[in-house]
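Morning. Coffee machine broken again, so started the prediction first thing and wrote up yesterday's gels while waiting. Chain of 177 residues, entered below exactly as on the submission form.
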Amino acid sequence: MNKYTEISNFWEIINYNYDQIRYAEVKASIVISIYSLFFSIAYTIDILDDENSYALDMNNIVHVISLFFLLPGFFFTIRALIFCIKCFLPRLNISTQKSPLFFGDIGTKYNDFDSYYKTLDNLMDNKEEYHKHLTQMIYVTGHIAFAKFSNVNKGIKALLRSLLCYIIFLILVFAIF
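Came back before lunch.
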C-alpha cells in the first residue's frame, strides 16, 4: 500500500467520525424541534380554548389519575432536553498530546505561523509520528461521536416515554370525560 492510500484511510476514518458527530447533533436538534412543536401546539390550543374544555377538576378521579401521567411526562421531557443539550456539549476527559493537526491546539499552542509551519513540516516528514497524531484524532473523534450518540439515544428514549405519558394523559382527560 502506498503512503498516500494509507494516509487517506486515516482521514476517511476521521471524516466518518465527524459525520457521525454531525448526525448525532442533527438527531438531538430534531428531538428539541419535536418538543418545540408539541408545546407550541399545546399552548395555541390553550389560548384558543375559550370554553376551557380541558380544565382539570380535582374532584374528578379520572382527572386526578391523569396527573399521574402528566407529571412523569414533564420528568421525561426535562430528561430528554438535558440529554440533547449534553449531545451538543460533550465533556470528555481524554488526555492527548498537543497536535498541529487539531484546530484547538493550533489556536492555543502556536502564536505565530513560522513556529506552526516548522512543527507541521517536521510532523509530515516523520511518518510514524504523523500516523500517531492521525490515530489520536481518530481516537478522540470516536469518543466524541460515541458520547454524543449515547446522549441523543437516551434523549430519544425519554422523548418516546414523555409522548406516551402525554398521550395517555390526553386520552384520560378528553376521551373518558
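Residues 25 and 88 are 6 Å apart (CA to CA). Going to sketch it on the whiteboard this afternoon.
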